[in-house]
Known about the structure:
This is Copper(I)-binding protein. The chain is an alpha+beta fold and 172 residues long.
Amino acid sequence: MKKMTCAAFAALLLASTNLSAVAQDHAGHGSHGNAGQAVVKAGPIAISGAFIRAMVPGAKVGGGYIKLDNKGGEADRLVAATSPAAKRVEIHEMTMENDVMKMRQLKDGIDLPAGGTVELKPGGMHLMFMDVIKPFKKGDTVPVTLQFQKAGTVDVTFKVGAAGASSMEHQH
Ligand SMILES: [Cu+2]
């Protein structure tokens, strides 16, 4: 009886060791996500390159950019985004109209065709952070929850780059 108890205890110990190893592994992945470099997945959608431009003093809004790679066989749609760092996050598109840069809200979100890659980048589509609580500074990280029509919601950490940065990779 005593021997069995010992074996059970050993098995328990082994199991808990394995569990903590798994937990640490996950924590490691999480910290990569926090660095804003790793690819975050929402179902078949791979999300990468999340960054926000630092805000100039006095600005109330900030622009966020991201790459969405739909590796699935079905089209999906980015329908909304939220962040505790801003009162509201809208999906916008920048277009040229009669030589004037205009910004419009994409109320239906962004279509993500099956097998296609959609990039939100400066001069094009972007996430607009409205009424930002505390101006984004270079080096900050901003938590954002993206909502997809089919893939559901996913948390992504955006890294704040320089005010004129076109991406985290091509920063001057
Ligand atoms: Cu905008």
